[in-house]
Amino acid sequence: MANRKLTGSHLISHALKAEGVKNIFTIAGDHTLPVMDAMADDGFNFVDTRHEQAASFMADGYGRITGKLGVVMTTTPGMANAIPGLANGLHSESPMLSLAGSAEFSELGKGANQEIDQIALASAVTKGAWMVTDARRIPDMIAMAIRTAYSGRRGPVHLTVPLDVQEQKVFEEDFKVCTDTHNKHVGSVVAGAEEIRQAVDVLNNARRPLIIAGPSAGYSPDGSTLKYLVETTKIPVMTSDQSRGLIPDDHPYCLGYFDSALNWATKLVGDADVVLILGRKFDNSIGYGNIFNEDCKIIQVDPDQREIGRNRSIDVGLVGDVSAIIGQLADESTRHIWVEKKDWIADMTSLKQSQSEWYANLARPETPMHATYVHSVLNRFLTPEDILVWDGGDFGHFGRMLHKANEPLSWFYFAQFGTLGNGLPTALAAKIAHPNRRVILISGDGGFGFTAMEFDTAVRHNLPIVCILGNDACWGIDYHIQVGIYGRPVATNLLPTRYDKVVEGLGGYGQFVQTHDEFEPALKRAFSSGRPALINAVIQNGISPRAEAAIVKWKNRRAKIR
């Protein structure tokens, strides 16, 4: 019908549908009711959570796991609750859209209902935040926001659409002008040929080279180009964040997880004479680049120009799509002759073997169980198809030392921001993305408490994940740091809560495990239950290598102050 009118809410719905969005992570609220009603007509799947923090964590997780846009939709108070997930998404490099309603635009600035400055609030934790003041701008502003989310280093963006803009009526023809938001896909940005040749020459002349793949290398789930590069150059590689599994941990040139406290092979990183950094910031977690010796030549590949040479001088900088540049480096490498650095690889492999022996010695069948025993038993049940999701805590650190990543996008730990409680929402997002794969959440009791009620969400939406909860009744890492630095713990003890009963009360499957001989049968029952399941395993209050490293760091800092 000519001159048919649509509301701003319909424009939002149609624009997101054109973008391929299917899932909306949300809680219903006054400021989003019009757009939710419009979206219901367009067949969106509403994943309604018990807290907006969990909804934003789910959008963050969904964006990382799928590479597709994760959308969280909130009211004004809900938008404030969602901030932690946006902050985590900024650090995890997740393409996400925060869409919030508000009081009427005509009333903002007057003390309107639940009024806060959403744009100022979101600006600190997103790549961009904007207010939509005219419904006719909705399609192009959504397109612009999504392009921003995907450009360079990925991250969250935010749009506030007031109630009166959602209900504003415009002619359908206005929508047709800019209905296609797919114009964000403008092709891969590649490096110049001369810079590629220079980088490969530096690598080819190395005696102890190393490749480190970070989150931006994992934007593409296809690890074939990285594998091609590694096998051509015969250079060992470590992976972290979204790049975990991009090249299997079982590959002869893969030295596993790049974590200085949890992978003993990283003890030799300082001996490398050339390091190729693929999409990883020189941030605090790697000593701002100073874990490499000052004479080490650095080749840095990053989607963000601003990160090149930040905190550490480099020798070659390559800006663009990391996956595409890996392909360029691989192609150029075929023009050279490469010699395997057997002694260099053997030295690091030997340290990994020593770590395995140390781990096996800890993983004894005893009661209460050590975290290593729990993970050793779990490890026998895992397949490459399983998706592992980690929350924070010492219990998880012991697991991250053991469990391998042999498939892309199957191993998810929280970002450098370190937001506890994101594990359960991320696991649920993984199950939504991959309903036919097993999803296993590994969590400590402290982190689990942040979002435990989302087991209600799991039950309502039939998301049968399995959570292995290591319960030592304390905030483990901070407990050990306090004891190691100050000689006593303060405000770090918890109750030995029966989280299994909580899960049972919400309609899930819960089990309480106190002895080592109970764990394996409990694990079998949890996997076969067909319901969202939790094993509440009582464990020793053991200190992880990550906590030990934190104590050393604290002591060194205090020594400098003196």
Low-confidence stretches: 177-183
- The pLDDT mean sits at 94
Q: Based on the structure given, which CATH architecture of the largest domain is correct? A: 3-Layer(aba) Sandwich
Helicity level: 25-40%
In the sheet with the most strands, the strands line up as 3-2-4-5-7-6
Structure explained in plain terms:
The structure is a single chain. The protein has 562 residues and is an alpha/beta fold. It folds into three domains: 5-184, 3-Layer(aba) Sandwich (Rossmann fold), CATH 3.40.50.970; 193-343, TPP-binding domain (Rossmann fold, 3-Layer(aba) Sandwich), CATH 3.40.50.1220; 363-552, Rossmann fold. It contains 22 helices and 20 strands. The strands form four sheets. Strands 3-2-4-5-7-6 form a six-stranded parallel β-sheet, sandwiched between helices.
